[in-house]
Amino acid sequence: MTTILRTWELTKEYQGKEVVSGVNMNIKQGEIYGFLGPNGAGKTTVMKMITNLVKPTEGYIEFFGVSMTDHSYEMLKRMGCIIEYPVFYDKLTARENLQLHGEYMGYYNTKAMDEALELVKLEGVDKKPVKQFSLGMKQRLAIARAVMTKPELLILDEPINGLDPMGIKELREVFRMLSREYGMTLLISSHILGEIEQVADTIGMIRDGILLEEMAMDRIRSRNTQYIELITGASSKAVYVLEHKLGLTNYKVLDPRTIRIYDAVQQLELNKALVEAGVELDSLSKKNHSLEDHFVEQMGW
Ligand code: ATP
């Protein structure tokens, strides 16, 4: 797959403090890239640099292999974005808002406007003034506005913030449709792992301005391993049994009471060996290393 957007050592300082540090991001054509990180991690700042709303202190951005400058207007037209809260003319209808946006962008295409409204399922309410819209409807209208001009890359900053479960579900379907049916590339930021996990093809994890990891979801999922977790007050004795009685080497002592065993071993056999050696167990159970565990480890929580 072609990489359509690449950032090179992207860095931003505010008042002498780095809020984004040497970020190297790679977004492939047609994928949904989930940009995941806690509040204040630097997601919005990275997105603002990509869309030329903020100037990087260091580093640069390549879009379709071309290095972006302040004058890359033609390149910026190939991006659509919703960064921070979308603003509309409240007394105007959805359609009128789109018309105004089209005029401002020099894009006159009523068919594209109809398609965009249909895509976000607002075609039936396009005559209502926007002030009567729910947050979810406004969010969908913002997406219609951003996709109306058929951008190749759509950048959405925390699009699910404040939405109810139904609104989130509807938006998720819109994302999938844009990606699968329209071949659009999406960069979506969120601080909610469960949401990103459901739509993203690739995840970029950011904390304190540093991109910790960038990985395909398939790879993250395939790394989800099973392990046996045992909790005991006699962990040194337990480790002795694991190594010398059972010949196990792939285990991790998490804290003085918790041991995780990744080697293939039967639960029964393990239990028997420990009990025979007089190791008192509080619990012994089979577990899965989930994406959530991986996220928590990466974020250092
Ligand atoms: P959130 O989801 O809370 O918006 P974020 O990951 O998008 O978080 P940013 O908004 O990029 O994070 O902010 C990163 C850091 O940069 C924060 O500490 C923020 O206070 C700081 N910051 C952002 N904009 C400015 C600015 N204009 N001047 C000074 N500091 C700023």
From TrEMBL:
Q: Which Pfam families match?
A: ABC_tran
Which molecular function GO terms apply here? ATP binding; ATP hydrolysis activity
Instruction: List the Gene3D superfamilies.
Output: P-loop containing nucleotide triphosphate hydrolases
Query: Keywords on this record?
Result: ATP-binding, Nucleotide-binding, Transport
Against CDD domains, the record matches this protein to: ABC_BcrA_bacitracin_resist
Where would I find the ABC transporter domain in this sequence?
5-233
Give the family, as the similarity comment puts it.
Belongs to the ABC transporter superfamily.
- Name of the protein this chain belongs to: ABC-2 type transport system ATP-binding protein
Q: Which organism is it from?
A: Paenibacillus jilunlii
